[in-house]
Amino acid sequence: MTPEEALQATLAGEHAAVYVYGVLGGRVSSSAEPGLAASLRAAYTVHRGRRDQVTAILLHADAEPVAAEVSYELPNAATTAADCRAAAAEIEERCAEVYAAAVGSTARANRQWAIDALTDSAVRALGFGAQSMPFPGVPEL
Amino acid sequence: MAAAGSLVGVAACSPNASQAPARRQARRSQAAEPQVDPDVLLAATVLADEQRLLDLVDATLARFPGLTDVLTAARDAHAAHVALLEEAAPDEPLPSAGPSASSAPEPEAEAAVPHDRRRALMRLARREDDLALVDKRSAFAAESGAFARVLASMAASAAQQATLVRQVAEGAG
Lengths: 141, 173
Fold this sequence. Notes:
- The complex is a heterodimer.
- By secondary structure, chain A is an all-alpha fold.
- Chain A contains 4 helices and no strands.
- The longest helix of chain B has 28 residues.
- The chains are: A mainly alpha, B mainly alpha.
């Protein structure tokens, strides 16, 4: 995978994450589930920021950033708070895989960006109920 | 589990045939010595840090057997890291390999786990943070992309354990 391909895959993952968090945020009541609602808002903000960062990196490299899909399939029905937590955890784990791939395909500043994003997603997933694992983002290990 | 040797692209004893004459002259005294792959050195250094953290988890468990449920995940994670790195690192210690400066060896301190449960857990959480930083720096420095990916994952794992251990410590207030 070339650095550009890895960054494009990362951007595609961020587009999906931003979409899913946007939907999840609309399905969780801030009054009934204030903690979860706040966590979803924070995650949405983080991934939106990362989307913009990766877009800028690609533009700086004279690459055409991959566009977002019109919609994305949710990881589950997301009809309950538990569903929304599980969906958020799955999104973080998917992002962790994309970031890990980017670590392996980039260098210097872009690699550092991916290293930090991987750690953030692995820890953020715990907040949504994910189990810790020995090798986050590297499913074959 | 994938062979760790392939992760670091082990070429631990590959002679470098492309030395420029001046550099060749400067390195005459080293001419007979094999060059060590920088990623192998990195693996040896991270292995020392991961093993030290694993030892601390074991020491903490020995003092507080009731923490088994809490620390089993941390133990399993670091044991997996050590096992993988042992495949990548050479059997014999390398002169320049050793614990990183950010987690200097304190074997006596490691053995002396605080008697207070909360303090012991907070200490462990801080060491997990330290190890995550070591792993991150190593991932940044790795020449092999595949090895960098695994090291970054180890950093994320240590950060996860730091978070979980700290949560328990704070709950134990």
